[in-house]
Specification:
Helices cover about 55% and strands about 15% of the residues. The protein is of the alpha+beta class and about 650 residues long. Strands 1, 2, 3, 4, 5, 6, 7, 8 and 9 form a nine-stranded antiparallel beta sheet that branches. The chain has a four-stranded antiparallel beta sheet with strand order 11-12-10-15, covered by helices on one side. It has a three-stranded antiparallel beta sheet with strand order 16-17-18, with no helix packed on it. Helix 9 runs antiparallel to helix 11 and helix 11 packs antiparallel against helix 12.
């Protein structure tokens, strides 16, 4: 709910907290409808604190609630709400003045500062100014006396209720038109709001000329503001910057900084150059850390020779690097620091104002936030941004809720699908039992057939492994015999070599001795030759026996290889026949009983063929053994014949 309050300085639009303070808002709205606040005087204006009104008499002690106006003075005050707590945290809040024990009437005030914690818990906040913050600044700048009473009257001229959600109290009647100002309401005024003030009264000619010069300067500054050279007509250039001109084009920033640094700390020194070519424009700005250093440089450096040029020094009038933040809220310099407001200091009669001035002196009101430095347009934009952020937050919350609801719906659908699947499984389980029984019987049959086939294959593989083991054993025996014969031959050859070497040594000794004829006669030599021959004869049979053994071993290995090749060919034939019989059995199992009988005959034939093959293989082995024996006998007879011939020789 909104109320428009028209004053002699301008209009204010107030939004009321009807949900939090329904009774207090009802009282305020009904008094506005009765035109009770028309021509009321702002009798107390404390800078950066409050601007109080609502007393028809203008003394600050009167005023009554709507129930007191309608029913009588016994209901002058009523008890306002104090929960939920609303703090006086910002400028522009509308609050009803409490007479004690939370009793309020008609008087109210607007806050002109922030974080007014001394008012919390005592006075009842019922609304907030949404339009007309410029009027609050004018109220804050009003000239007042020691009792905080403005010299020039500031009055409420009219009130308009835009919407009234409350019913009228009993006996309440809205006037047909706004009442005319009474003598009682105008008696406490000083200078009327529409009265012209002559500034020249009581002033000399010199004072009047100074005043005219100031007005002309202000007019020129206003023109510069309109053109865009100045951010504001009331802005003054910085006092710690010097303007240096008539420089030599070769002079650089570092040169000027070194020259001017003898007067104090130089924060910055800049020679202005052309943007395109970069050539010096022969003037510069030198910024000092404090004003005293700047003044000393002004008095000492004017008309000084630098790089064969006499320079000119003056205080800078440029505000290009200064940002104005609005009247009463200071400026931002090139270093980014704030030069705070130009509001007057309060006299400090109240403890709250003293505390505020102390805080401003210590830290320039450290707790001030950006809201106090905003204009009405900036506040409107900030309010719109807050509303937009709130809408975005709400939309995000709704989106999250929708995602959650979707996930819940999805989970419920999954659960329903699971239940449906379990039901269908239960129905299908009854149908599939018969199928399972038949499939189990079929699997059992297949398993039995596989077991029979596996047992047959295992027996065959065992026989094959036994045969392979026998063959390996035979091969090992043959190799061991060969190695033994080789060892015997080697040992015998070594013995022969030793004897021959000994005999050669003896012969060499005999030939080398000088008395060879005396000791060894011809007969003795013949005897020794005979002895050597007899020894050779004795060793020859052993050599012959070893050679015979070696030949026998070789014959055995050849026969074993032949047997092995024959057995491998027979095994291959037998495996091929077995495979053929298996394939025939499998193909004929599915046929009728007649085919089964034919299969049995085929099996008998295959077995007979196997037996015939086995018998033929056994016959071949016996023949091979007989041929071996005959060969061995022949080799023995040949060896004996040869030995007899040698003995004869």
């Amino acid at each position: 709910m909104s109320v428009v309050i028209e004053t002699t300085l301008g209009d204010l639009t107030v939004d009321l907290f009807t949900d939090e303070r329904p009774i207090a808002c009802l009282n305020f709205i009904k008094l506005c409808q009765l035109k009770y606040y028309n021509f009321n005087l702002f009798h107390t204006v404390q800078q950066n604190f409050i601007a109080q009104t609502g007393d028809p008499s203008g003394d600050g002690d009167g005023g009554s609630s709507v129930w007191g106006v309608v029913e009588g003075s016994q209901k002058r005050f009523f008890e306002a709400e104090y929960l939920p707590k609303i703090h006086h945290s910002s400028a522009g809040l509308l609050s009803l003045v409490s007479a004690g024990k939370n009793l309020v009437g008609s008087q109210f005030f607007f806050t002109l500062g922030e974080n007014l914690t001394s008012l919390d818990g005592t006075h009842c906040v019922i609304g907030e100014v949404v339009e007309g913050h410029e009027l609050l600044r004018k109220l804050n700048d009003a000239i007042v006396d020691d009792n905080f009473r403005p010299y020039q009257d500031i009055r409420i001229t009219h009130t308009v209720v835009l919407e009234d959600p409350f019913p009228n109290p009993r006996g309440f009647q809205v006037p047909s038109r706004s009442p005319s100002p009474s003598v009682e309401r105008l008696k406490n005024g000083r200078i009327a709001a529409d009265e012209d003030i002559d500034d020249t009264d009581g002033k000399t000619m010199e004072e009047m000329q100074e005043m005219l010069a100031e007005r002309e300067a202000k007019a020129r500054a206003t023109i510069l503001e309109i053109v865009g050279d100045l951010p504001d007509a009331d802005m003054a250039p910085p006092e710690n910057v010097l303007f240096v001109c008539k420089l030599n084009p070769v002079t650089t920033d570092d040169d000027l900084e070194i020259i001017f640094s003898r007067f104090g700390v130089v924060k910055g020194c800049e020679v202005i150059r052309d943007r395109k070519t970069g050539d010096s424009l022969q003037y510069a700005f030198v910024e000092f850390e404090d004003q005293k250093s700047c003044e000393a440089a002004y008095f000492k450096m004017d008309n000084v020779l630098i790089d064969d040029r006499r320079i000119h020094v003056d205080f800078s009038q440029s505000v290009s690097k200064v940002t104005w933040r609005g009247k009463g809220r200071g400026v931002t310099g090139s270093d980014g620091k704030l030069d705070f407001n130009n509001l007057r200091e309060s006299n400090g009669k109240s403890q709250a104002s003293k505390a505020r001035t102390d805080r401003r002196k210590d830290g320039n009101d450290r707790s001030n936030n950006e809201r106090s430095r905003m204009s009405s347009a900036e506040r409107r934009k900030a309010r719109e941004l807050r509303h937009q952020e709130q809408k975005d937050h709400d939309s995000r919350v709704r989106g999250n809720n929708s995602h959650r609801s979707r996930s819940r719906d999805r989970s419920s659908r999954h659960q329903e699908q699971k239940d449906r699947d379990s039901r269908t499984r239960g129905n299908n389980s009854h149908r599939s039992r018969s199928r399972d029984r038949s499939s189990r019987h079929q699997e059992q049959k297949d398993r039995d057939s596989r077991v029979r086939g596996n047992n047959f294959n295992r027996s065959r593989s065992r026989d094959r492994n036994d045969r392979h083991q026998e063959q390996r054993d035979r091969a090992r025996g043959s190799t061991s015999q060969r190695s033994r014969s080789r060892d015997c031959n080697n040992r015998h050859q070594e013995r022969i070599n030793r004897r021959r070497s000994i005999s050669r040594e003896h012969s060499d000794r005999r030939n080398a001795s000088p008395n060879r004829g005396n000791h060894y006669s011809a007969e003795r030599r013949l005897q020794e030759d005979r002895r050597n021959r007899s020894r050779d004869r004795d060793h020859r049979p052993a050599l012959r026996n070893q050679e015979n053994l070696h030949r026998q071993v070789e014959d055995k290995s050849k026969s074993y290889k032949e047997d092995r090749s024959e057995s491998s060919t027979k095994d291959r034939k037998r495996l091929a026949l077995e495979k053929e019989s298996k394939t025939k059995k499998k193909s004929k199992r599915d046929t009728s009983s007649s085919s089964d009988s034919s299969n049995s005959s085929d099996d008998s034939e295959s077995s007979s063929s196997d037996s015939s093959d086995d018998s033929s293989s056994s016959d071949e082995r016996s023949k091979h053994k007989k041929s071996k024996k005959s060969k061995h006998k022949k080799s023995k007879s040949k060896n004996k014949h040869k030995s007899k011939k040698k003995h004869r020789k």
